[in-house]
Design a protein that fits this description.
Blueprint lengths: L4 H8 L3 H8 L1 H9 L5 E2 H8 L4 H13 L3 E6 L5 E6 L1 H5 L1 H32 L1
Antiparallel strand pairs: 1-3, 2-3
Amino acid sequence: MLPETGGLLEMCWPVRQILARVGDKWSVLIVMALRNGPRRFNEIKRAIGTISQRMLTLTLKGMERDGLVRRTVIPSKPPRVDYELTELGHSLRAPVEQLGLWAIEHEARIAAAQEAFDGKDSSAG
């Protein structure tokens, strides 16, 4: 059983950086891009589409630091660099996929709520 709200928030405090990482939109998209196996940097960038090179680099480094992604340099000319999910990174797939399914299932309701809120907000002004 979970503790009362105050206790739950206190429990989350030490892991806030981890929650920020796994809740970050780019990390979520990278997990999905790597779910079927290793990819090169530009393949990940193309799969995501809207991420800048700098943001992809920073996010991959952070995920590597957190043990979610493994970076492998393959000696060739030019050198090849692959990124893949670690065992820990693969363990994040199920929660990420569930969150995505939840978002898809509730997209219309959320859009309707936003529209109602925005309409109410503009009529109040």
